[in-house]
Specification:
Distance between the termini: 13 Å
Largest sheet: none
Number of strands: 0
Structural class: mainly alpha
Oligomer: single chain
Shape: globular
Amino acid sequence: MSKATEHSRFASIFAAGTLLSRAMGLIRDSVMFAFIPAFSIDAFLVAFKFPNMLREVVGEGASNAAFVPLFSEALEKKSGEEFKVLVSAVLSAMIVLLALLTVLGILALPTIVGGITALDIFTGKEPPSAEKVELITSISIWTFPYLFMICLAVFCMAPLFTLKHYSTPSWSPVLLNISIILCCLLFYKRFMEPAYALVAGAWLGGVAQLLVQYIALVNVSGIKIPNFKLNHPAIRQVMWLLLPVIIGQSAGEINKLVDTLFAASLPDPGTVRNLYSANRLIQFPLSIFAVATSVAILPNLAKLHTKGEHDELRINLMQGMRQSFFFIMPAMAGLFILGYPVIALLFERGEFTTLDTDMASIALMYYAGGLLAFAWVKIVVTGFYAMQDTRTPVIIASCAMILNILLNFALIGPLGVKGLALSTTISYGLNCLVLYLVLSYRVGRLWDEAFINSLVRVLVATVFMGATAYGTWAFCASSFDPTTFVGKSMIALIPIVVGMILYALLARTLSIPEYEYFMNGLRKRTNS
């Protein structure tokens, strides 16, 4: 099996589970928006951002950057028993670290949340009410212990990825979505403040994810309990790798947190929810395609670096970029063209009005302009991580973070929520460009004739698909009633289906290699 086909197969496994998780996430959001008032949802979304931010930094960022290369090296050069001891020791260190972070976070949250009242000098609006700040603070404190559970669950992904077990990590986030949906439906009337039903769902989902990931780790690796060998020599190496990863990952996550706090500082209810809605649709293709690809290629990149096969490493990186480009470009065009009808279908119910759909769809367009940059950052940065260089991405990401924050200050006044989305797109675009150029200098140019040829063919297919989808949407919008659920479904789904079928046909007709790699990966997955 070729490396490109192997990557496509692993990526398809991860993508299939992620697709299920993201689809359930959209259903979860739809249920939340239908039953929970905008005021309460805004408070929960701000509160949930804190543990989610640290999950990305300490959990997923560490798994992809620090742990997978180290575990891959141990598996390649040492015995299976030494691999188990190493994983168990690092797991022990993570338990201690996460317990400390959880306690410190709970103590610091009241001060952090209180800071949103000072942002009115930049927004030009009245500061949020004392009631809103008090609710966000309380929900944040109750939600924050989710960090401990989810980060341990995410840590278990690192040895699973190293052992090429992708299925459980990909589908386990579904449990969080199911938990929040059930708690929302069952308990939203039982609490005086409906947001606490969502907190209960977060707790239940965190425990469930930790259990299934730990069971998978035991079954796949044979590691049953942490050994608490905190003096293991590899722990110091992990921490030296982990520290710059935390700083680097923090840059992107602080951007998201700052965006959320700026949105919360606006007095109108629903501003956080509207920005969140746009971002959720961006995360759908990003998580399925870009994250799946980066997860699939990282263990192999780390192995190639360990063997000194740098030309193969460069080729694998370009294959990852081409593969993500193949999926991201039609998604990008689709979000530009069909963002409004999709948001109307998914979220326009309860207190989510057509005005909210307008605001969220415009923010989505600003986000969609940066979708390729969001995706390629995740791919390109794996090249640095595979070489165990976690410092260079830190410096670049930190500069991008500062730029994003400065743009937030400048744009939130004239553009409101839309300015926050535009700031993210600009800063990530520059982050991606600099990472790409620096890595090209390190490993050799990350483009060749086949690379450019593939990208051009994808662009041609995307243009024809986008024009057809737009025409189909215009026809459906004039043929169906947009005020009914059936009408909204037809207006949103028919153009999507037509666009997907046409894109697949064009990809096959134009002989785009990534289409064949993907189909071969699916066939291998089906036959295995």
